[in-house]
Amino acid sequence: MEEKKEPTKNSMEEKSEVVEEKAEEKKSSKMKKKRKTKKRTRLRLWVILFFLVLDLGASFCLVLAYGPNKNFRDWLVTTAMSTMNHKYLARMIYNEETINQVLKENTVIEINEETDTDAIVIGSYETDHYESEYEEQILKKDEGNDVYKIVTFKENGSTYYITVIYDPSRIHLAIASRPGVIGDRVKKLATDNDAKIAINASGFEDAGGGGNGANAAGVVIHDGKIVWQAPASKWGNGLIGFNQEHKLVLTKESASKAIQNGMVDAVTFGPFLIVNGKSAEIKGYGGGVHPRTIIAQRKDGIVLFVVIDGNGNKTGYRGGVSLKEAIEVLERYKVYNAANLDGGASSILVENGEIVNHPVGYSETGERWHPNAWIVQ
Question: pTM of this prediction?
Fold first, then answer.
């Protein structure tokens, strides 16, 4: 018989190690399965949460769009439909019948009067005393600068830049160098004309949001001559300009008639916001909410270039202001005549060759190409 061998100490240790290794492998396998199960559970929870948020967001949007409160609907429709390229935002949600009804309920009713230029007496302001803080902002000139000043303030989430021009005879219309081919940046128009201040003026054809400012909307009068004539902009068919006495004239008469009556420089746009001290009636969100450019004159002849910033790629502000909000500010500064100019991505203010506001065009600087600009020399 073979002699039975007793297990050696080494062999016992080896067996023990093998057993431990198997136990560790088993434990590791269980841990891996456990981790996989946890990952799957977490993933399911995230998927459920994602769709829950999506459902809640969709429900919220539906309530906003179709709920009993019409505020969101009116804001969206009027704002989208008063742009050239974002009307689809309204049409994605509402049918044409609803859109037309909203636009009918939210509109601008202009004052149907010709400008009373006799009521404007240029240079009739006094600086001995100020009736209000707003009068002081306008009439108190910056030290060393009696040509203009810029009043800047924030209100309701938007920034206002009001350029006060004391001598309206310094205001002219600068025309792009190649009308019908391409416009110019307002900065260039200012630099080429040695302008201290410049703002955008005419609207222009803007198919697909890529308009190059070549073709102004409506009529352009320069130095008492019609230099451009095209179909009027849907945002207004009024002439906005200055006559030989450097008074701001807002009129719906023809360009030739306006020139006969003394118009020197003018562009087509609108609506007219204040005529002869009477403010237009703005129903609801008439005109939508946008960055804006406005030109205005007081009875003492002082002209205001008003540029209002809105939400864009370089600011944290909201989408601009309604025409009703703009009029309230103009009334505060005792404006006698005022008209809306091209706004949105076109709104820009240039001082001494530098951009002052935050234009929201698609270029790196936010600038766009324009057919012309109002300048102060």
Answer: 0.79
